[in-house]
Amino acid sequence: MNTVIRVEGLNKSFGGKQVLFNMGLAVQPGEMVALIGASGSGKSTLLRHLSGLACGDRRDAGSIEILGRQVQAAGRLNRRVRRLRADIGYIFQQFNLVGRLSVMSNVLLGCLGRVPRWRGCLGWFTSEEKASAMAALERVGLAEYAHRRASTLSGGQQQRVAIARALTQGAQVILADEPIASLDPESARKVMEILADINGKDGKTVVVTLHQVDYAVRYCRRVVALKAGHIHFDGSVDALNGVFLNDLYGGDLDASLMFPDHAARAREPRPLALVAA
Ligand SMILES: Nc1ncnc2c1ncn2[C@@H]1O[C@H](COP(=O)(O)OP(=O)(O)OP(=O)(O)O)[C@@H](O)[C@H]1O
To answer: Per the database record, which ranges form the ABC transporter domain (predicted)?
Structure first.
């Protein structure tokens, strides 16, 4: 099978300050990968580059391919990156819904990359597209809210609508940037379970940045840990331990809460109390 995400030699600077250093990454079809690291380590910047929402400049070397198609090379975005974005579902921390529109209309926005522009402008969708949007809402448990104004939903519900939008989009790859950072634990659990379900049942490749290491341990097999713009670790979640996490987070993380002993990590349910500072 072909590699879904390939990053080679990626650098990024903002105003002369380098924030990503020679990053290399390969993600295979159907993987669910957690991106972890302290605040400012470069997680969101990397994710934005993967989706083609950001790019380096000519001084920033590096290339990114998604689904075998070039997103950027030598600090330049592929001119056809908009098309590629139709295959990438991007979940934002703050949901990015249009609050005054109905839940259903928001989910239908997922079709925009694939329908003729005039239809998108008129908001004219076929019955198949509407059925697909409703099926996506059912999948995330929100069919009964289809005709509610999006702004009236809770944060957790809005994030599930955003996931339904990515499903309707038909995205092959889901990039989720701190999707649970502003949610209560129960809403966070539901969002992570939906992402894991989409990964497990539909085989979609998921990369999710997380502040909460315990959710990474629970839902992802592979972890990529960033430290000061470098890939510090890339491997099995089983390799994480308190010493490693204290080093990664500079002592801001009380990993003893998470790994009281190695054996406890294998037991379910895993603790959900720990949040990185
Ligand atoms: N638009 C920007 N202009 C200037 N500097 C930026 C910009 N975006 C990010 N940075 C800097 O790049 C570095 C990495 O930021 P990034 O947001 O990727 O980190 P992060 O790991 O996602 O942090 P957090 O977990 O707090 O969201 C930080 O030093 C940040 O200040």
So the answer is: 5-253
Per-residue pLDDT tens listing for the chain (277 residues):
589 999 999 999 888 899 999 999 999 999 999 999 999 999 999 999 999 887 766 667 789 999 999 999 887 888 888 888 889 999 999 999 999 999 999 999 998 877 777 777 777 788 999 999 999 999 999 999 999 999 999 999 999 999 999 999 999 999 999 999 999 999 999 999 999 999 999 999 999 999 989 999 999 999 999 999 999 999 999 999 888 898 898 866 655 445 544 434 443 444 433 333 2
Of 239, 238, 224, 162, give the one whose Cα is nearest residue 198: 162
Provide the domain count of the chain: 1
ipTM above 0.90, yes or no: yes
Q: Which atom of ligand 1 is nearest to the CA of 226?
A: 21
Range of the domain at 253: 5-94+172-257
**Residue 87 vs residues 54, 70, 99, 123: alpha-carbon distances, Å:** 17, 13, 24, 21
Query: Which residue among 19, 20, 36, 226 has the greatest number of ligand 1 atoms within 8 angstroms of its CB, and so is best to mutate?
Result: 19
Using CA atoms, how far apart are residues 54 and 71, in angstroms rounded to an integer?
A: 10
In a domain, 136, yes or no: no
Q: Is residue 114 included in any domain, yes or no?
A: no
Would 112 be classed as within a structural domain?
A: no
